[in-house]
Write a structure and sequence with these properties.
Elements (H helix, E strand, L loop, with lengths): L5 H17 L2 E9 L2 E5 L3 E7 L6 E9 L2 E9 L14 E4 L2 E10 L2 E5 L6 E3 L4 E3 L8 E11 H6 L9
Antiparallel strand pairs: 1-2, 1-11, 3-4, 3-9, 4-5, 5-7, 6-7, 8-11, 9-10
Length: 163
């Protein structure tokens, strides 16, 4: 029986491992609105805005998961329209900010940009203002696109922070 050289076996194993690793699917955030589209390479992000009734800052933290979006934390500066009316075991309050820990899954997200909401998306590396991208009274749609890891490593983000 002929024995394969160990370098060949190790090289083939490394090549196979590299192929599997580089083709591993990685979710990419897609943001679309009328006349606007961009893509972000981020595993998590925060949507931040001024509530139209309460006039206080609200924030929601999302993680990209294979099935879509995982909302894992919500923060608000006050109780009011659309907010829970009492503290629960998953809630805490510090320095006037109420924080809820939760686990809600969404396939996609829809956001309506209204006047005076100061809508932002915050990633670990950047803060983006929707007012620089879209007009007021615009619907924004968030989806995921899975791409092979190798393409994600070399893909540029197409969203740009204001200068």
């Amino acid at each position: 029986m002929m024995r394969l050289p160990s370098k060949l076996v190790y090289g083939a194993g490394f090549g196979l491992l590299l192929l599997v690793f580089s083709s591993w699917p990685v979710p990419r955030l897609i943001i679309e609105a009328e006349g606007f589209a961009c893509q972000l390479n981020t595993p998590r992000f925060t949507l931040s805005w001024i509530h139209s009734v309460e006039h206080s800052r609200w924030e929601e933290d999302y993680q990209l998961v294979a099935s879509g979006f995982l909302l894992y934390t919500t923060r608000m500066e006050s109780f009011g329209a659309g907010s829970p009316y009492q503290l629960t075991p998953s809630a805490s309050q510090q320095e006037g900010v109420l924080e809820y820990t939760l686990e809600r899954h969404f396939n996609e997200l829809h956001w309506f940009i209204s006047p005076s909401m100061d809508a932002q998306i915050i990633t670990p590396s950047e803060k983006y203002y929707f007012s620089t991208w879209v007009e007021q009274m615009t619907s924004v749609h968030f989806t995921l696109q899975s791409r092979p890891l190798i393409l994600t490593l070399f893909a540029k983000e197409t969203c740009h922070a204001p200068e």
